[in-house]
Write a structure and sequence with these properties.
Helix content: 40-55%
CATH architecture: 3-Layer(aba) Sandwich
Order of helices and strands: HHEHHEHHEHEHHHH
CATH superfamily: NADH Oxidase
Shape: globular
Radius of gyration: 20 Å
Largest sheet: 4 strands, antiparallel
Number of domains: 1
CATH topology: NADH Oxidase
Number of helices: 11
CATH class: Alpha Beta
Strand order of the largest sheet: 1-2-4-3
């Protein structure tokens, strides 16, 4: 393969991703949304289990409640589409029961399969949606109150909301957030821990400049500062007991 300096359209699309939190009032036709979802379904799936479901939350009162429970009211209220991406072993349980088989959804391996399947499906959805000019934002905040949110949309056992996503026509412009350099995440043949002594401070300076000059929410922090604040706190400890209640008592 011969490479040139001009990136293919697909690579440019991937490199242009930003999180959109303010949307125009323009609706997304349900046929278009279904086409995007159908394209997203072609993501890889371990053993083809397709252990995911997505809930389209179109009821305004349910959207409002989910916005409050996820602590994401402004963007959810602004978005014409709110989706809940859920790990779903219930459909598999029903399919296997029709063959007089019981599933083992409580194993750590099957839990990982469900989470990965759902994430791959969701990321495929993002690429498909952005290729059509829409903007999106993942909402991990649904895990702030997963039990209550699950009740709002009647999630059965063996399912849980992994994250939400708002979708719509962007009504704001955001700068692309600089990622770690490829050299920081690429290791050849063996893991190279020594290169971080140089690469992390360089990336910290890049992110310090970005946070100081981005269009909104400016701050005097670099990447290591942000990660130190985020990872030094134990978050969402309720998820362990919640997953156990949903029949994901991992072995």
């Amino acid at each position: 393969m011969t490479f040139n300096h001009k990136l293919p359209d697909t690579l440019n699309l991937l490199r242009s991703h930003t999180s959109i939190r303010k949307y125009k009032k323009e609706q997304i036709p349900i046929e278009v949304l279904k086409d995007i979802l159908g394209s997203a379904q072609h993501a890889a799936s371990s053993n083809f289990v397709q252990a995911y479901s997505v809930v389209l939350v179109s009821d305004e009162e349910k959207k409002r409640k989910i916005g409050e429970l996820s602590r994401n009211q402004p963007q959810i209220n602004s978005a014409p589409v709110l989706l809940l991406f859920c790990v779903d072993m219930k459909r598999l349980e029903i399919a296997c029961a029709q063959r007089d088989t019981s599933i083992q959804q409580q194993t750590t391996e099957n839990f990982i399969v469900g989470v990965v399947d759902t994430a791959l499906f969701a990321q495929n959805f993002v690429i498909a949606a952005e290729s059509q000019g829409y903007g999106i934002c993942f909402i991990g905040g649904v895990r702030n109150n997963p039990e209550e949110i699950g009740k709002i949309v009647d999630l059965p056992d063996k399912t849980f909301p992994l994250f939400g996503m708002t979708v719509g026509v962007p009504d704001e412009e955001q700068l692309v957030k600089p990622r770690l350099p490829v050299e920081a995440i690429l290791h050849e043949n063996s893991y190279d821990i020594e290169k971080y002594e140089e690469l992390i401070p360089e990336y910290d300076q890049t992110m310090l400049d970005y946070y100081k000059h981005r269009l909104t929410n400016n701050k005097e922090q670099d990447w290591s500062d942000t990660m130190s604040a985020f990872l030094s706190d134990k978050r969402r400890l309720h998820m362990k007991s919640y997953l156990k209640d949903k029949c994901f008592d991992l072995e």
